[in-house]
Specification:
Length: about 350
Amino acid sequence: MLFRQLFDKTSSTYTYLLASRRGGEALLIDPVFEQTQRYLKLLEELDLKLVKVVDTHVHADHVSAMGKLRDATRCVTVMGEESPADVVSLRVRDNDKLTIEGVSLTALHTPGHTIESYSFLMGDRVFTGDTLLIRGTGRTDFQNGDPYDQYHSIFDRLLKLPDNTLVYPGHDYKGDTVSTIEEEKAWNPRLQVRSADEYAEIMNNLNLANPAMMDVAVPENLHPGLRSSAQHRVPVREVADILAGWPLKGCRFIDIRETSERRRYGAIPGSIHAPYGHFDQYFKSSEALAARENSDCFLLYCAVGERSTLAVEIASELGLTNVSHIPGGFTAWMNAGGPVEEIS
Ligand SMILES: [Fe+2]
């Protein structure tokens, strides 16, 4: 197991790098924009392929590196379903598994600091974002924060984890790096309360100034999606156009979402499943090669059109022609009332 806790001095943010082995897939939690080159260098040094990058919530004190890392590595951006960010490649819900090769995290929806705050549990440790800090808790006075929600997230979820669970927070301002659930129960001054009302009383009277970066960081972090269509100009096939000619002859739909997304929402009828990250394998199969000879077109789609844009780029680099994607992905498909096949 590879585990690194990286620190950004300016914002006192901790970023976590997880991977199961050298040469394998990696995931980053809460990366900071200004540190992007450092992450890329470390990934290279450890011979890791960044495949997912997660923000625990929309940060107000630093700009996230999610978008920049996605542009540099074509990794999948991940946030909670409740995130107000415009485009996130993959959204998780409470109790969803977030996986890469050899690593599995359980998403815990822990609102309070913000409505979309998530913690991620991995075996003996939990990454708590700004929900639970070492001897502190994240403020609840902006971005739809709510001290009552946070009380329940902490007392009913996080503090119910085994006492020896390691707590890795999103920030620390004093130089502490890790704690445990047991330690926080005993020594976190904000948790020495008897009720949600008492907790809210503390949180509503902190009278903190807004973070220095807030006016820059929040608007920036709300728009992490692929921005410049000029930069990512790939062939598209709009949903309306597809539905006008439905059922489409001579086109193969390739669903590059994860199995869990297919099961939750269904798929375009007749789609071939070739998950992003390994979708190029499909094009090496005899079935795909045969289809290509018949000059079929390939239509890639994901949840919102971000992974599929990157996949079309990869496909064209592999020399594949007749590959396009569906802008807006399966979300646009559902919104337009396109036919859906259930996936069991
Ligand atoms: Fe925060």
